[in-house]
Amino acid sequence: MNQKFQGKWEERWHPLRREWVVYSAHRDARPWSGASVAPSKESPAYDPACYLCPGNVRARGIRNPDYRGVFIFDNDFPVVGAEAPAVPPNIQDAHPALYQKKRADGIARVVCYDPRHNVTLAQISCNQVAHVFTAWRDQMIEFIKNPSIRFVLIFENRGEITGVSNPHPHCQIYAVNFVFSLIEKELDAALDFHREHNQNIFDEILGCELKSGERVIDENESACAFVPFFARYSYEVMIFPKKRHATLASMSDSELYDLAAVFQSVIRRYDSLFGMPFPYVMSFFQAPVDGGDYSQYHLHLLLQPPLRSPGLQKFLAGPEIGGGNFMADAMPEDKARELKQVDLTSYQGAD
Ligand SMILES: [Zn+2]
After folding, report:
1. How does DSSP assign 138-204, residue by residue?
2. Which side of the chain, N or C, has fewer Cβ within a 10 Å radius?
3. Predicted TM-score of the model (pTM)
4. What is the pLDDT of residues 83-127, one digit of tens each?
5. Domain ranges of the chain
6. Which class is 11-29+37-82+102-340 in CATH?
7. 117 in catalytic set
């Protein structure tokens, strides 16, 4: 084989999704070395047309309070909610085992991270990021007590490329009456792995990554971030508390602070490397909150950025949409190295 293809062209097993990822980094040989520039602060701190800024009126006539820290409210146009209409029974000729439906019950919320319209989680103080994490934990404690909620997805779509129309720093919470399919997959993988190996799959992944260190981007006493061995997106990062927690509800203040600090370090590296507020889809993976035994689950954050390099988007097409498996464009070790090498000592935040 041609020497230049070595180690850049292979398939890797994704043990949590239980599928193969194909790496063809030999087609994208030039590594991106990045550019360090200060984040843009061109837009104003207050936008009178923004429905998330303090004091402004939202779509259904409700006025936001003059909030100072984190502000949480029920989504005005929820995908799930107590107002969801009743669902009529199946039509007579439908097969009940195949064609199932139910009410779109649940709670959809918006979490504003900061009153300022023009900042990001990367730019605000680490203390304020920790306040956001604490607010998420408080939400989880509330949802755990609610018998109609089975699962809670906390996610942030960052940047226009991910489809978000409002740049005001915020995320969403979907508390729903079903378990999102990726979590079900991970739960099944964890239970099977425990049965077959008598080990916890997340502990083993975490242990392997920390031992090798090759893909670790940052860590502190109780949290760590790495590009996983089986990353699908270039710059994909997983962030774990080192101690196993099924949901945020059981995490201590200091563990939350450490998790927030490592998370912020990763997104600051993104911004610094690309010289822009870097777009990503962030999702918080937690166990269901339906009272089941999820002791094998280990919560984590997953960052899936849509950019492969500046101006170059990863498009999902035939293999991903058509076939369901991912064709990755970069080797996880190369992307981890780029992120690790970013020097954050001169990073300029907004505070
Ligand atoms: Zn705003």
Report:
1. HHHHHHHT-TT--EEEEEEEESGGGT----SSEEEEEEESS--HHHHHHHHHHHHHHHHHSS-HHHH
2. N
3. 0.93
4. 899 988 776 677 888 888 899 999 999 999 999 999 999 999 999
5. 11-29+37-82+102-340
6. alpha beta
7. no
